[in-house]
Structures are given as structure tokens and as C-alpha cells.
């Protein structure tokens, strides 16, 4: 007879065996991009029909199962418009362009918001994709104004864009997520010829490179500075511990430095993206299906929640990063991204039509320490999932 204390160990073994079995099965499957966009179209059509108020942006699910939305000033508000642009990019159907434009223009009021570092997410995801796909002249000035607003959060003496105005008493915290907002500044620099914005982006990326990373390639979530740029503390807000590897933080680093290499061609950014990608992919706590736990060092693995949003971000990033790598590594990154997409497209993580509050991806984690959006859908998981599918489709 098994002792009571044996059950957790037995459960862990069984979970591991199941994960391996599922991974082996996944290797035999391929991704049907058309099928996944068809299903996405059904879900998003339902979401548009049931959520017509463009002042409330779909975000996640509440604990009671109802839809959770946010105002435009919340950092995730631009992802829904961006997701609709990806639907238009794949289908070329005018109803998606109309819906994407509607939800994009609903974000225009945030272009002068200097109280957030997240204008890249908020504006570049909807307006940037809209401009890329349609050349609508109304989108460009919003992006340029947004870039100027974002640049106001850069302190030349510190050499970084301030993330929050206060964190645990520290007055100049910088989070790894901030790397994702540099793409807006780099675009604005190219568009206007303003070299100041390019230098600002490089300075921020270099100081993050210097202070945010550990020797193994993993990243801290929050680095706190004084007014002269001296590091005071290295902390976490959403991870399991200050020294842990919060999964989505690693994803932001891989994606952010891949983008910075594309925009600058500076090899040090590509190498950091690769080093963090290798940490992510080779970590012993990464499950066989390539969907990470919400933190690589979460205390109760394998009974911790997965974060499918981190996998979606990494899959998309790897499909770009592989373009900049020699053949053996490029193949390895492509295969890992494909494994992630196979898993994300499976019933384990992809919601059935009409379920999951009409979001596409389930089993994500936003903020486990705060107990918010844990094992829930997240709008940015859908955005990066469709982006990854588009990138995968172009490779084919």
C-alpha cells in the first residue's frame, strides 16, 4: 500500500510521463494554418458580436468566468486591434480590416500618455500593423506622437526608460518587458531620420544587457536604479522570487533583443537573444510539450500552472531569430517554435469555439503572486499566437 506521502511523487511521475507521451504525439502532427485561422475567425467574430463597446478592451476572464476588459490606458489594450489586423493579413477579408481599424482608432487617445512605458504595446501593435498593411495616413502621426511620449520617460543620466514611477520604494525601476517597446522608437527613428530616438533605444538596450542578465542567459524581472544610473536592487514583481526565471520575462527578452538586432544589426543583441533562448529551451524544467511553467523556478513544479502566453511569444520570436542564425541553430529554433505551435494548437491549449470567453488560447498566467489571471486566457497570448502562425506560414 502506498503511504500518503508517496502520492505527490507518484503524481509528478505520472504528469511527466503524460507530458512526454503528448510531446511524442505532437511530433507526428503538423500545423494547419488555414484551419487555425478559420477557428480564430469564428472565435473573434463571436467576441466582436458580444463586445461592441470600443471603450472596453477584451483582456482575460474573471474568476467567476465572465469576460474581463480594461480601459485604453491599460498596457494590454492595443493587442486586440493588433490581433484583428493579423486576421486581415491572413484572410484579406474587408470585415477584418473594418474591425481592426475601429479598435485601432479607439487607442488614439493614448498617443500623448507619458505616464506609461508600454506605448509600444499599446500603439505599435494596432497602429503599426495597420500602417504596414494598409498605408492608412491617419495611423502615422499617432505613432510618431506616441514615440515622442515614450521618449519622455528616458533619463539620459540613468540611460534607461523608466518603467513604473515607484516599486517597493524604488523610484527608478526598469522591467525586462520594456525591451518590447523599443520597436516603436526604432520605427520612429527610421521614419523621421531622428537619430536621437535610435541612440536612446540602443542606450536602453545596452544598459539592460549590462544589468538585467545572469551568466546563464536568464533575466531578472525588475532592476531598480538611483537617479544616477547605479543599480540598487534586482527584484521581481510577477516571478516566483527575485532570483527566479519568470517565464514571460525570458520571453520578452528573447523577442525584444531579436527585434533590436533586426533594427540595428548590432551582433550583441542577436547573441543575447540566442543565449536567453538557449536557456529557455534547454532548461530541465521546460516540459516536453514546450509550454513552460509560469516560472522556471516555481516551488511546486510539476503542479504549477503553465503559461501558454510565454510560449506564444517565444514561438514568434524564434521564427524571426532563426533567420539570423547559422543553419544548425536556425533549424533547432524552427523546430522548437513548431513544437510550441503544435502544442498551442492542440485541445490542451487551444479553446473550442464558443468557449474561453471567445479568446483563442487558454492556460496562461498574468500575475501569480498577485493571484490575478492565473490559468486564464490573455489577449496577448492570442496576438503572439497568430503572429507566430503568420511567420510559420511564410516559412512554408
Automatic annotation (TrEMBL):
- Name listed for the protein in its UniProt record: Glucuronyl hydrolase
Q: Which InterPro entries match?
A: 6-hairpin_glycosidase_sf (IPR008928), 6hp_glycosidase-like_sf (IPR012341), Glyco_hydro_88 (IPR010905), UG_Glycosaminoglycan_Hydrolase (IPR052369)
Annotated coiled-coil positions are none
Record bears the keyword Signal = yes
One Pfam family matching this protein: Glyco_hydro_88
Which residues constitute the signal peptide according to the record? 1-26
A Gene Ontology biological process noted in the UniProt record is:
polysaccharide catabolic process
* Family in the record: Belongs to the glycosyl hydrolase 88 family.
Active-site residues, Swiss-Prot/TrEMBL: 118, 177
